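Rotation project, supervised by the postdoc (A.L.). Task for the rotation student: set up a whole-complex structure prediction and record inputs and outputs verbatim in this book. Inputs entered:
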Amino acid sequence: MGATKTDHFSDSQNELAILTKALGHPARIAIIEYLLKVESCICGDIVNELPLAQPTVSQHLKELKNAGLIKGNVEGAAICYCINETGFDKVKAFFKLVNSHLDDKRIQCC
Amino acid sequence: MGATKTDHFSDSQNELAILTKALGHPARIAIIEYLLKVESCICGDIVNELPLAQPTVSQHLKELKNAGLIKGNVEGAAICYCINETGFDKVKAFFKLVNSHLDDKRIQCC
DNA sequence: TTATTATATTGCAATATTACGATATAATTT
DNA sequence: AAATTATATCGTAATATTGCAATATAATAA
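Outputs recorded:
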């Protein structure tokens, strides 16, 4: 095997896993942090910012876009990227759930 | 290639990526959700809950534990698992940063 | 001591990810 | 139109992940 058994989990579990998986790489964390700082930029700016080749950055941007964490807008020959709040809202909703379970009770088995 | 170039990113970026990567699988999301619900349980309970074989569940638990998202406590022949708040606090800190960047300004390039 | 119970580890096949050179596409400039 | 600029896609090698059967380990019970 090697393929995730997505059909055995709920839609919301699969959707959340797609979002967190997209965040599960330091290059993509760096891209998100950079986009938060500069608000919006073109792919070339990120290539200059990261220690990765242009095709690699392009691939990471594609994954973040597919997951729904960023948006890309054609602007002449370039493409302008920015944060997609919709995706982040979904992840934040999960951590709201985590908080509501942990805030009041101090759960410790060890 | 195929190996992530972790040495080219900051410690905090790598650490956060380890945490989000661990959350990037529906089975591990399901385990976290279950642990939040029952507060603590043994591995066998999760095996009964998920559509995965015991070694597979054990492996997912190991990854969550290595990332710092859960704790395991030996309790006789069994091991009692529960949420590790420290790990979640680190992820929550990142989303606090995201919020602080997005809350006031409505960033949209498209 | 010999089961039994609970979990971890090993080994391996199938699949996915990461990274990048080479190349394609598409808009702009000269 | 030809060159330039900006990004995406293709192809591929190296590596990582997923899943599980078989087996090992470790504590408890009979």
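Student's summary: Chain A has five helices and three strands.
Supervisor addendum: Chain A touches chain B through 53 residues (CB under 8 Å).
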